[in-house]
Amino acid sequence: MVTFKVTRVETTPFEGQKPGTSGLRKKVKVFIQPHYLQNFVQATFNALGANRVKGATLVVSGDGRYYSKDAIQIITKMAAANGVRRVWIGQNGLLATPAVSAVVRERVGADGSKATGAFILTASHNPGGPHEDFGIKYNMENGGPAPEGITNKIYENTTTIKEYLIAEGLPDVDVSTTGVSSFEGPEGKFDVDVFDSTSDYLKLMKSIFDFPSIKKLLSSPKFSFCYDALHGVAGVHAKRIFVEELGANESSLVNCVPKEDFGGGHPDPNLTYAKELVARMGLSKTHSEPNPPEFGAAADGDGDRNMVLGKRFFVTPSDSVAIIAANAVQAIPYFSGGLKGVARSMPTSAALDVVAKHLNLKFFEVPTGWKFFGNLMDAGMCSICGEESFGTGSDHIREKDGIWAVLAWLSILAYKNKDNLGGGNLVTVEDIVRQHWATYGRHYYTRYDYENVNADGAKELMAHLVKLQSSIDEVNKIIKGIVPNVSHVVHADEFEYKDPVDGSVSKHQGIRYLFEDGSRLVFRLSGTGSEGATIRLYIEQYEKDPSKIGRDSQEALAPLVEVALKLSKMQEYTGRSAPTVIT
């Protein structure tokens, strides 16, 4: 058996190793600096403390982006040196973020071991490649992201670190072949277990959904299906689940081979970046598709986000979570006993609120960041949740889950069509959404992203918006001068959240202007980019009148968009005349 020694390597702190809502994300050129990754990993081990590290079983995998292979070997050697007992690695180092959460929660090793945490190597929906982004985050024993108490401690440790531990003499592990490799170190045995990436996740999905009814839908000549993984890690799971288990044609999978640079694309499942799927589904402005599939979906780089499309029809993420919640009890076996509650992030539209009110469900509005949902789920208070940023999920794991959301939609379609696959018209994605609007009203909704703007300008814009809030009368005067016929603002604040589970308070979570008719303007600085600042502007208008729910979204929102841009002085502070992305 190969033995290794523990070496202590002297180091000095790097500035800016502060994890955001989803870990630490920087350009690859930053991560490949000598000691940079090692400092962050050691700071994490130190923050967790010996009781969570010695003898632990850790998952180390990610979305396969550039630098992942090197990072897996470095983290494995550091885990061995810090007294970790086992490292579990998905085959080829590939595990979607939701699959990591499932593995932490569900997998039992051959020796009866259970995972106690995970290092996930991803920068989510950000581009990959030598000149693009890399990221790392730590998830806890519940399968969810580390809470602020831990991430703050990690950051503090990065500012004072003097040394890190690494195993000398431990060879690189072959991650392409499944099996267990055993080594001997100063503290005893150390195992590396390379395992099948999809088995545990698939088993969990089969316990949630009625696979035979989805298979029946997918095999119907009336129904056609398309799934685009944007060359992210979801492609690994998609082939196994949609083709091998559910019988979809392999030709229905697009860009499902993971690539280190995501094929040169931007692995963000929205109408701007999922160009091939958007064209195939008949939604391209430049390309006309004569016969689009009935259902289409896309994933991001690490497989936790999703976009759902019908034939020539876009489902907003805010509507998607509301529709899943409204139909879950009937269509998804896992929820047949009822929902414990539902939750959305603050910027997400209030479509879910209306469903919760109708169905008399507990409802929570939380800051952006999946950990807030995780707390509610761990306390048994929430079953289904979602974010407008194409993230949807449930209490089966503690991360958002892109493939789960697709299976949820397929389940709803299978349920609505259970009696008419033989004869009669197919109930389509568009039919389901329009019926939902007729029942609950429609939330016209759009998001403008201004990416990589000057950070000082972004901060000044937010300060200007906070200052305006001191006089609602003044705000309404300004608004009437811009567009006279919009509703008036009745409340304006900076969103603050007191967690009902642990009592923690999260401040400065976004600037809100709430209108009398239920419309909202929300402004947020996002923490998921790797450089510059991203301003996100969310615009929402609620419409209950059935004769007015069929309008074009951008047309319906045009007056509020004008109000938002002029009220915030967007161009003046950012120098931008248009957003980078509109969703």
Describe the model.
The chain is an alpha/beta fold and about 575 residues long. Helix content is about 35%, strand content about 25%. The chain has 19 helices and 27 strands. It has an 8-stranded mixed sheet with strand order 1-9-10-5-4-6-7-3, with helices on both faces. Strands 21-24-25-26-20-27 form a 6-stranded antiparallel sheet. Strands 12-11-13-14-15 form a 5-stranded mixed sheet. Helix 2 crosses helix 4, helix 11 packs across helix 14 and helix 17 packs across helix 18. The longest helix has 16 residues. Keywords: Carbohydrate metabolism, Glucose metabolism, Isomerase, Magnesium, Metal-binding, Phosphoprotein. Belongs to the phosphohexose mutase family. It comes from Datura stramonium (Jimsonweed). It is an enzyme of class 5 (isomerase).
Distance from N terminus to C terminus (CA atoms, Å) equals 55 Å
Output the radius of gyration: 24 Å
Quick one: biggest sheet?
8 strands, mixed
Number of helices: 19
Show unreliable segments.
none
Q: Provide the β-strand percentage band.
A: 15-25%
Mean pLDDT: 95
Overall 3D shape: globular
Q: What percentage of residues falls in helices of 4 or more residues?
A: 25-40%
Can you list the strand order of the major beta sheet? 1-9-10-5-4-6-7-3
Total beta-strand segments: 27
Provide the structure class: alpha/beta
